[in-house]
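Need residues for this backbone.
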């Protein structure tokens, strides 16, 4: 069974961005430290980081004191920027990307629903800043670790 879900690359990108956001703005964090703290495999981290650099969200520094840093202040980065930096523009259905290409878009009872859902998703992602996620990460680090069975939103197979 397939499901609508964010990709592992996007999940990893969000983890990476939060970890970088936890550091001071001037701080350059070694990629091996980011990989260890986020659980992102180092080889995968480099590929994701390359996409985040293209999206102007991350800067990289080479050399023995090199590493990664945010390219923008945490309060200016949105979750939408991170998702689209990895996935490209959000489009729930191809008919929304190219209007009138589908001969049914004027007749389709679901067409306006797809448009409304896409608007809600993009607006929600735009409304969440990296600063909010960093603040939440700091709060969670203060709490004792919960067992998986206690996480209310975890989907059980």
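Answer:
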């Amino acid at each position: 069974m397939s499901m609508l879900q964010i990709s592992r690359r996007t999940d990893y990108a969000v983890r990476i961005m939060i970890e970088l956001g936890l550091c001071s703005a001037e701080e350059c964090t070694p990629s091996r430290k980011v990989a260890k703290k986020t659980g992102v495999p180092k080889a995968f981290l480099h590929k994701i980081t390359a996409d985040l650099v293209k999206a102007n969200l991350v800067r990289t520094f080479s050399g023995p004191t090199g590493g990664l840093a945010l390219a923008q202040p945490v309060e200016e980065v949105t979750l939408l920027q991170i998702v689209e930096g990895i996935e490209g523009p959000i489009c729930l259905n191809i008919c929304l990307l190219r209007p009138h290409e589908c001969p049914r878009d004027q007749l389709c009872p679901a067409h306006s629903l797809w448009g409304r859902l896409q608007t809600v998703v993009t607006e929600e992602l735009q409304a969440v800043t990296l600063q909010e996620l960093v603040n939440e990460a700091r709060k969670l680090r203060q709490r004792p670790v919960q067992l998986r069975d206690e996480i209310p939103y975890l989907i059980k197979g």
